[in-house]
Amino acid sequence: MMSLLLPSDGNSSSSRHRLPIPCYSSLSGFCDPGIKVTTGANTVSLCYEETKERIRKLFDKVQLSVSSYDTAWVALVPSPNFSDTPCFPECIDWLLNNQLSDGSWGLPNHNPLLIKDALSSTLASVLALKRWCVGEEQINKGLHFIELNATSAADENQHSPTGFDIIFPGMLEYAKDLGLNLPFESKDLNLMLERRELDVKRSRSEGRTAYLAYMSEGIGKLQDWDMAMKYQRKNGSLFNSPSTTAAAFLHLHNADCLNYLHMLLEKFGNAALRDWELTGILGRKLEVCWMKHTEVGCRGRNRYSWTLPLVLWHFGYSVLMGIMSLQCSSTNIRNEDFLKLAVEDFNICQSIHREELEVLERWVVDNRLDKLKFARQKSAYCYFSAAAALFSPELSDSRMSWAKNGVLTTVVDDFFDIGGSIEELENLIQLVEKWDVDMAVDCCSEHVQIIFSALHITICEIGAKAFQFQGRSVTSHMIDIWLNLLRSMLKEAIWIRDKTVPTMYEYMTNSFVSFALGPIVLPALYFVGPILSMEAVSSHEYQNLFKLVSTCGRLLNDIHGFERESRQGKLNAVSLHMAHGCGAITTEESIGEVKTSIIYQRKQLLRLVLQEKGSLIPRACKDLFWKMSQVLHLFYMKDDGFTSHEMINSVKAIIHEPIPSLNCRAGGKAAVETSSFLTAG
After folding, report:
1. Whether the predicted pLDDT of 327 surpasses 60
2. Quick one: pLDDT at residue 184?
3. pLDDT value of position 543
4. C-alpha closest to that of 526 among 537, 516, 513
5. What pLDDT is attached to residue 584?
6. How far is residue 278's CA from residue 300's CA, in Å, rounded to a whole number?
7. d(CA 373, CA 370)
8. How far apart are CA 469 and CA 503, in angstroms?
9. Residue 300 above 90 pLDDT?
10. Mean pLDDT of all residues in the chain?
11. Are 301 and 286 in contact (CB under 8 A)?
């Protein structure tokens, strides 16, 4: 038996292809020749590039606004000659004169999704005033604002600035040292401080150390300042961040840090501006950091992390949410043109996705998969996951490979679970092994014939398209991927038939393959851009990336499908863990163990994705494994989202409902209304 997912040598690949290969259209989505597509690839690409270019031009003369948060941290800096005197009294004056009517500092008319941002700015401003014993009235008003909004600090439904769980508790600790009467219970404050200390002390990769250096003002005494100063730039700053640089000077009295702050104030006057971070984002072509918990990537100036629902990570919508999170960086970032362009870009992407879904649904009918009454019809779900992970228009080939194989794995899974006899299952495997068959003679049933025909046509079709990208045949590799899946599913079917109770090792060794991510993710890698060599595909790194993401998915499924699968007599990691515990392990304990394993597996996956030294897999390909992990966590966020019907409204909305025109003069309200529209359902 061949090793897991290793491609064969390819010597017999050409002899396997007897059935005709259907042609595909210029949509690069494997369309039948009779299907007409209204949006040509060149036109879409042109519109997309024009949209991005017009968005960039909005920043040619960007009007940067004051950052209360950075100004407050600069205000904390003492004079190098007189430690009881502020080095930048003009910043103190600005804070005294620019408190908002509700007692906060920051933007007026707070976006309700950004209360944590306002809390950070307000607490930093209160600290600065208290440090220099000025503005008692402003301090009291600021503390009152914090008290009214204290529950938002722990509200997981609020969008969190990146590093909030480190920085905010760090500022609370400083406030306590200054004798401020904080509106937090002692136990809540201690819990936040303990979590911060654990977060700071956990293992440090290169990306992690950079992240911690960037969060220096929240780490304070716990900071490894020798490590942090490795990130000091030629201009004296740390990350071109006034707050991080000010924190470094407070602890180290580094002259270059102070020179940077002097330069900043000389350039902008009596307050610190969000100087370079916005430009940095544009320099990265407005990329959105979509790895929710990675410590590397783009960050808005007040460290705002776009923790959006996965399905909304279109470029246009990311820009739209960027307006909400970066609006505090620029006074012209929310102008009417910008909002219109963001909506336009989202709607263009959506129209492409809608057309591709129509192609996918036509493909289901043409291959008679809709005639298999035992099989769930999940084409919209499968395309939904593909569009969420691969939203860019130019990734159409990868999306369609992902979606078609997703539909096929769903059909095959149902066939092995309820639709087929052991004889039919074994017959299907024999057909794929032989490949060059006479279906009228060799298929033992109509169901087997429909499934094998769809597999054969689709694998040949995707293989032919992949040849254009990779310059070599990868069809044999895709056949091997499918064979490994079918064999693992057959093993589980035999276990269930014979009432075999495998060990946890036996179950996990087989079930991460039977979870069926192989045909979905692995062929899609051939279309994301880079050349994926035979050496890379055969590497341990490739195998491990697949095993980790599949194991996470299998365990998530087993947690949320435990009760349903127990009723159906299916094997499950939760029930097996309990069974092998001889009655000593409760359901809650078993689920807890599985959740711990998921966290570990996901950390290992992220480590591999971020690893650069010695890596054979191109980063764009590794990112796709992480994106699949994000898709899985979305589907299993509350329950088994793939089996339940609750997510269908979100699927329909993101694919079929364009964003309505915005009343841009409404400013922040328009953005909030749009956000509510998009996240509904």
Report:
1. no
2. 82
3. 97
4. 537
5. 83
6. 7
7. 7
8. 42
9. no
10. 78
11. no
Q: Which residues pair with 64 in a beta bridge?
A: 330
CA–CA distance, 275 with 278 (Å, rounded to integer): 7
Query: What ranges in 327-421 are assigned the alpha helix state H?
Result: 336-366, 379-389, 396-414
Count other C-beta atoms under 10 Å from residue 197's C-beta.
14
161 has which bridge partners?
Answer: 304
And the tokens for 675? 């956000």
Q: Six-digit token pair at 73?
A: 């941290």
DSSP 36: -
Q: What is the pLDDT of residue 641?
A: 57
Count CB atoms within 10 A of the CB of residue 230.
12
Give φ, ψ of 133 to 5 degrees: 55, 45
Q: Which residues contact 250 (CB under 8 A, 6 or more apart)?
A: 76, 77, 78
pLDDT band, residue 548 (cuts 50/70/90): very high
Token pair of 358 as six digits: 């129509």
435: CB partners within 8 A, 6+ apart? 16, 456, 479
Residues 6 or more apart from 293 whose CB is under 8 A from it?
A: 606
> d(Cα 27, Cα 297) in Å, to the nearest integer?
32
Instruction: For residues 177-205, give the mean pLDDT.
Output: 78
Residue 445 · residue 453 · CB < 8 Å: no
Asked whether the beta carbons of 67 and 118 are under 8 A apart, the reply is no
| Inter-residue contact 476 to 13 (CB < 8 Å) | yes
CA distances (Å), origin 308, targets 192, 311, 312, 634:
24, 8, 7, 11
What is the H or E stretch that residue 225 is in? helix 225-228
| Residue 25: partners with Cβ closer than 8 Å, 6 or more residues away | 31, 32, 33, 35, 37
Q: Comparing 36 with 494, which gets the higher pLDDT? A: 494
For residue 508, pLDDT over 90 is answered with yes
Question: Taking a C-beta distance cutoff of 8 angstroms, is the pair 272, 66 a contact?
Answer: yes
For 458-463, the CB contacts below 8 A with 24+ separation are: 458/367, 458/404, 458/405, 458/408, 460/17, 460/19, 460/21, 461/21, 461/22, 461/24, 461/30, 462/30, 462/401, 462/404, 462/405, 462/523
Residues 6 or more apart whose CB falls under 8 angstroms from that of 134 comprise: 92, 96
Alpha-carbon span 4 to 514, nearest angstrom: 12
Whole-number pLDDT of residue 52: 59
In which residue are the tokens 């990265």 written? 284
Listed residue (577, 584, 546) closest to 562, CA to CA: 577
